[in-house]
Specification:
- It is a single chain.
- Helices cover 30% and strands 22% of the residues.
- The relative contact order is 0.14.
- About 4% of the residues have low confidence.
- α9 packs antiparallel against α10 and α15 runs antiparallel to α16.
- Among the domains are: 177 residues, Orthogonal Bundle (Penicillin Amidohydrolase, domain 1), CATH 1.10.439; 87 residues, Penicillin G acylase, beta-roll domain, CATH 2.30.120; 131 residues, Penicillin amidase (Acylase) alpha subunit, N-terminal domain (Orthogonal Bundle), CATH 1.10.1400.
- A hairpin with a 5-residue loop joins β12 and β13.
- The chain is globular and about 70 Å long.
- By secondary structure, it is α+β, with helices and mostly antiparallel strands.
């Protein structure tokens, strides 16, 4: 309490002394005593201080609403199943908390969840299945903070200004948001099908295959320990890849401090308190998603003849539950109509007639249900809270083990002592390889080895998910059944499986559903390990060395094949200009690199061809350096090069055009050139977006978001640099809508102000004192 009073007094004085901040020092409603203090430093980064959990949440909610009120409201109107009412049924949702293709499908999906009462049941459960007391307080305060901002400040963001759906949020909205994020890759991925599946009808829905790498969500993370750092202490890199234009997974940076209990800085999702990634005084964590882990299974049902909504379990008939889900939808003339659609649910989960592009027909004899390991998981906020309080890497991973609330994230942690830890403790169905061999249907046998998708026999209770004694929830693997690793040098992941977080210590022995082992790694994984090894040849990692790695923009695919491609090009008639462009390229994806775009288009065609492109195949004994040596005698590869040249010519782009002239985002009518590139080329600084044959690249849709490099130094004030690639605010009227995007274009970082002396020394310091009254 004394520390809180001292901070309040210092901040009040600082606010009066800082130029232009005297008015901001007063709370919006004129109350003199604050419940939370928000200090803004460069680039609009808020540092929130309060004297209890409720007020800490309140301050963070108020600050989050300032930058992203429309994003918060967009998710709330989605999980309330009201998009069709306010925005029409046919438009594509912009929240990204499911893969529904239309507002109507989204509403029907979420209304079905809401009517099931699943979240209310989870909220009534004791912790850790239900929220910790502190987390409940944080969320309650967060909601008050968002609503206080909405009530007292004029909304300027055109995305929601004056909209009927811009309403106060509730605690239930926050929990629905968290729950939905957990099911993006399971039930949420087949929302179209869940809401439209009917017996005997053609398979409903569509969407993308349920694999993380195809959703625009991925990441890089590196944790450096004492044996690989210059000072014998930890260095952390966070580089999550998320959609840039979806509100439900947008990241936002802040620091929250409850003196004596919590002091954490990092990034989380507006609408949910606390951080997905970040650090405190002595430990830091980052995270990734694993493309090859499945958080769901299918169950194939044997139907009773003559009754397509009744299935057999151990020879006994069991009826599906029919729920007639209704939502309000706006018609073209502006009036509302009630739309009613049936949804069918089994003991395993809802019926679906698609899994991505795979049709799962509901016939007279069989149907399919999707079972999601996170359907009964509301623990993500517990995990985020507990990780943030860990004082060491081991304590952070211990927090993951205790809470078991992460739906699909790997965690890589390091600390001031130089220990590094990794865990893949998240929601994975308890399907051992033995059970898969015994219970997979013919479709399951086809999908399981290749993709890890189990399709289990729903007619036998013996084929239901198992349970571990140390699992908080039934039906999932407990911590003892999932991968973890501790080392003193380094751990790294770029969305590949648990098998190779460090090439010196491959992990094996886990069920296929957890991920494969002994398989070809993605190009970004391979490039990352090469760059780490290159740095260690020069010396231990520093913060600067990690920043250099992050923005090296090395193209690992080009490092493997460019010499051979140039030689191939010189044997192809009429390709002199293309050969010169590729030969003169610096091999990087910097904004000024000439020839990078030509290789980008070439590799986008070659990368989809499969392992036959290589002369030297994958070798499990050398997974970082194999496969290699492009088979330039392959006619398909030669054609891919000709097609890449034709693509640039069709878009009127010179073959040696500077990369940034055609690799950019537009903010306020200005093109901001961007380095980085496709993950398939092994560019660590990953960015992706659609290619328009007439114009080339347009707006980027996913890639690097929040970046941090944390270097511990033994003082309790780690040397940290951060960057939020799309900037703090989604509001184009904000001064912080594109300022960090400009930094990203120039490979520049923000020096974090974590300790009090640094916050108060900021030349941009602005102090806002807010009260709940």
């Amino acid at each position: 309490m004394l520390l809180w009073k001292r901070i309040a007094a210092v901040c009040a004085a600082a606010s009066l002394l800082a130029a232009g901040t005297a008015a901001a020092a007063q709370p919006p409603d004129g109350v003199s005593r604050p419940d939370a203090i928000i200090r803004y430093t460069e680039y609009g980064i808020p540092h929130i201080v309060a004297n209890d959990w409720l007020n800490l949440g309140f301050g963070q909610g108020f600050a989050a609403a300032k930058d992203n009120i429309c994003a918060i409201a967009d998710v709330a109107v989605t999980t309330r199943a009201e998009r069709s009412r306010w925005l029409g049924p046919d438009a594509a949702p912009t929240s990204g908390v499911s893969q529904a293709s239309t507002n109507l499908a989204s509403d029907l999906y979420f209304q079905g969840l809401n009517e099931s009462g699943v979240i209310e049941r989870l909220l009534s459960a004791p912790a850790p299945r239900g929220p910790y007391r502190e987390v409940r307080e944080l969320i309650r305060g967060y909601v008050e903070g968002v609503n206080k901002y909405l009530r007292t400040v004029e909304i300027t963001d055109p995305a929601c200004r004056g909209a009927g759906w811009l309403k106060p949020i509730t605690e239930l909205d926050v929990h629905r948001h968290s729950h939905a994020v957990g099911m993006i890759f399971g039930q949420g991925g087949v929302a179209d099908s869940i809401t439209a599946s009917l017996p005997g009808a053609p398979p409903a829905g569509g969407g993308t295959e349920q694999m993380l790498g195809e959703t625009g969500i991925g990441s890089n993370a590196i944790a450096i320990g004492s044996a690989a750092s210059a000072n014998g202490r930890g260095v952390s890199l966070a580089n999550p890849h998320l959609p840039w234009q979806l509100s439900g997974t947008r990241l936002w940076q802040s620091q929250v401090t409850l003196p004596g209990k919590l002091d954490v800085s990092g990034a989380g999702i507006p609408g949910i308190p606390l951080m997905w990634l970040g650090h405190n005084e002595t430990a830091a964590w980052s995270g990734t998603a694993t493309d090859t882990t499945r958080t769901y299974t299918l169950f194939e049902l044997k139907l009773v003849p003559g009754s397509p909504t009744t299935y057999l379990v151990d020879g006994k008939p069991e009826r599906m539950r029919r729920d007639d889900v209704s939502v309000l939808s706006r018609k073209a003339d502006g009036t509302l109509e009630r739309v009613v659609r049936p949804q069918w649910t089994t003991r395993y989960g809802p019926v679906t007639t698609r899994l991505g592009q795979r049709k799962l027909p509901w016939t007279a004899s069989s149907a399919f249900a999707i079972a999601d390991a996170n359907a009964g998981n509301l623990g993500m906020t517990n995990s985020m809270f507990a990780i943030a309080r860990g004082r060491t890497a081991g304590e952070m991973i211990g927090a993951v083990r205790e809470t078991q609330g992460l739906p699909w994230m790997n965690i890589l942690a390091t600390d001031d002592r130089g220990r590094v830890e990794f865990s893949q403790i998240h929601g994975v169905p308890h399907v051992t390889d033995e059970k898969a061999a015994r219970c997979n249907t013919p479709l399951g046998k086809e999908l399981f080895d290749a993709d890890g998708v189990a399709v289990l026999d729903g007619s036998r209770t013996a084929c239901a998910w198992g349970r571990d004694r140390d699992a908080v929830r039934p039906g999932v693997f407990g911590p003892s059944g999932l991968p973890s690793l501790s080392r003193s040098d380094y751990l790294a992941n770029s969305n590949d499986s648990y098998w190779l977080f460090n090439p010196a210590e491959p992990k094996t022995g886990f069920p296929r559903i957890v991920g494969p082992a002994r398989y070809e790694q993605n190009m970004r994984t391979r490039g990352g390990f090469v760059e780490i090894a290159d740095q260690l040849k020069k010396g231990g990692f520093t913060g600067q060395a990690m920043r250099d790695l992050m923005f090296s923009n090395r193209d690992h695919a080009a490092e493997l094949v460019r010499v051979d491609v140039v030689a191939m090009c010189r044997t192809m008639p009429g390709m002199d200009a293309a050969c010169a462009a590729l030969a003169g390229w610096d091999g990087r994806s910097d904004t000024g690199s000439r020839g990078a775009l030509l290789f980008d288009r070439f590799w986008s065609l070659v990368d989809r061809m499969g392992p036959e492109i290589w002369r030297i195949p994958f070798d499990v004994k050398d997974p970082v350096h194999t496969p290699n040596t492009l088979d330039t005698g392959n006619a398909a590869i030669r054609k891919a090069f000709s097609d890449a040249v034709a693509q640039l010519k069709a878009a009127n782009i010179p073959l040696d055009a500077p990369y940034g002239d055609n690799h950019y985002v537009v903010r306020d009518g200005r093109k901001i050139p961007l380095g980085g590139g496709a993950a398939g080329r092994g560019v660590y600084n990953s960015l992706g977006g659609p290619w328009d044959p007439a114009r080339g690249y347009t707006e980027f849709t996913h890639g690097g978001t929040y970046l941090h490099v944390v270097e511990f130094n033994g003082t309790g004030c780690p040397d940290t640099t951060t960057l939020l690639t799309y900037s703090q605010s989604a509001n184009p009227a904000s001064a912080h809508h594109s300022d960090q995007t400009e930094l990203y274009s120039r490979k520049q970082w923000v020096t974090e102000r974590y300790c009090e002396k640094d916050i108060l020394a900021s030349p941009s310091l602005e102090v806002v004192r807010v009260s709940r009254r």
